[in-house]
Amino acid sequence: MKPYKLTLLIIVVLMLQVGFLPGWQPLNVVPDLLLAVVICLALYTTATEALICAMVVGLALDISSGADFGLRLGFYTVVAIGVSLLNRAGLALDSLPWRLALAALLTLMANGVILLGLYLHGADLPGRVVASRLSISVVLELIIMMIGGPIVRKLASGGEGMLSMASRGNNYMAQKKATVFGVSANGRGESKGLKLSQELAKAEACTEAILPPDADAEAP
User: Fold this and answer.
1) In whole angstroms, how far apart are CA 106 and each of 67, 103, 143, 148?
2) DSSP alpha helices (H): ranges in 45-159?
3) Distance CA 43, CA 40 (A)
4) CA-based nearest residue to 72, from 127, 44, 30
5) Distance from chain centroid for Cα 25
6) pLDDT tens across 57-111, in order?
7) Taking the model in full, what pTM does it have?
């Protein structure tokens, strides 16, 4: 992804995640836009770009929350590294079912860590409320992944389309040249072989004409 696209994406995610979504809170749950973006960046770009987005927005979330400083930064950093390593290992995580499953699993893990922290601090967490919040968080994350995944993928592959077309064009021209040169080389080889056979036939004819027939044959 080009630097200006990554910068613009980070700014938009930062404004939405820190400013807009906490104030909106659909169904009393803050959607985790950063998680979906970090997953898509780790799948469709380099690990460095995913880490930059995770660290910048994660640090901003830690500063704005004022509690558990470093938790979000560490979590999104681990997500970026882990998804990038799994992607490099050859797992087909870029398909929609895998992306949705990965987003749901990581959403449960992120909310589980937060709920565990609240429980350790003595907060009263009714089971029905916890289950409802987790379900709503997973559904919102899946919606964000289905909408935002293609957008991030298009931004990541915007500069690679022309490169791939140029590469295919160069490969096609190289194959055409190799084919033409191969045919011409074969043609030259066949013509040289034909000339050589004709010269050998002429030499044999001249030899038969000059040398007398075999005189050692016995008379009857």
Assistant:
1) 21, 5, 14, 16
2) 47-65, 71-88, 96-120, 127-157
3) 5
4) 30
5) 32
6) 889 888 888 777 888 899 999 999 999 999 888 887 888 899 999 999 999 998 8
7) 0.68
